[in-house]
């Protein structure tokens, strides 16, 4: 079920509405293309727990993928192409036993049908240690280093089978990123070598402490590892970023390293939308604000789910970043997105095109209209129920002397920030109101009286609140 939305704000109404409709039409056209040759069937689920108890227990759709796995720290997700041609994911552990078994069979078949890429086992090139000073165990693309201290804080690493399971998990992360088209570390290097993983807390002389870091190497404590750890793909994505040489040595890019790593994590683990509620609570902040605490990744989801960009686009940006002769970034992530969007002939004007993307972000946040909608809404509803938080999904308005309504100054959208305003129709009354996108002329600290413009790069969405499951 879709929500009827009224879009307004710092983006001009008509162009934005046309942009969202255009993108939605492209999504549906891609869905129809994907549906060719796929069987549409009904999938049955057990009752969904609170706060998702209103979610339909039967879904008609075609199998796309069974992504991730059920472990201590992870959950598998069933991705379906519904009969309305929209991609949606669902918790696989709630499938009926028969449907879960079918999903497992179809996933095994899917993996066999994937065109195999040349799989070369990278050679081991030891770094910082010798075989006399560290124990090394390897997988095709990784080398895991441990020290001699089996009673220290990292003693978990020496539990039977622990490192073997971590090796398998790292390789599954590698395979997933390869399928999405990420520029994997040293993949284009004529002399690649295994990526070193230094396990701290085990007595390594040069890596005694540290929880989790990714870059030229991966450094992780056993407490950051574990079966189905989300930290693994987050830190490995930092290594992908590092070897791409993009967005380095600039004060404007640090937030994007973390934002993108969390987006990457969510693609592999749909059931885990990292700090999504934190972002939703502060969505009116500048999009590149460090106060999002790594959570401002939904705009990358908008781009990835747009067929004109595709799932590899957030990874493509890294090697595409313009750099100087010392590999220092010459542009920030927003500039790179705008430039590449124009170079690929997706947008005529990068500023307006990206502005429309932010408008679409606001529109989709109304019902979290993304592939992983179930998991997004579960997180938002949980926070609303348990903490009363997520204020940006209910922007507080105040009426000015001109009788117009405005968000509180503290909640007004900053650069590429968004507001969502819920409209509550009075029972039994039907009225029509036009809301003019004009900024207040009241003097406010630090804000001049300016007309609202697409180039001001923010968005406000007003929508009628409806109860029941979204679709």
Could you characterize what this model shows?
There is one protein chain. The protein has 471 residues and is α+β, with helices and mostly antiparallel strands. The protein has three domains: 1-33 and 271-471, no CATH class; 38-113, SH3 type barrels, CATH 2.30.30; 121-244, Glutaredoxin. The chain contains eleven helices and 14 strands. It has helices at residues 13-35, 97-113, 162-180, 230-244, 254-268, 276-281, 298-305, 313-320, 333-343, 350-365, 373-387; strands at residues 5-8, 41-44, 58-67, 77-82, 87-91, 135-138, 142-146, 195-199, 212-214, 218-220, 397-399, 405-407, 418-423, 459-464. It has a five-stranded mixed β-sheet with strand order 6-7-8-10-9. Strand 4 and strand 5 form a beta hairpin. Helix 1 packs across helix 10, helix 4 (230-244) packs across helix 5 and helix 9 (333-343) packs across helix 10. The longest helix is centred in the N-terminal third of the chain and has 23 residues, at 13-35.
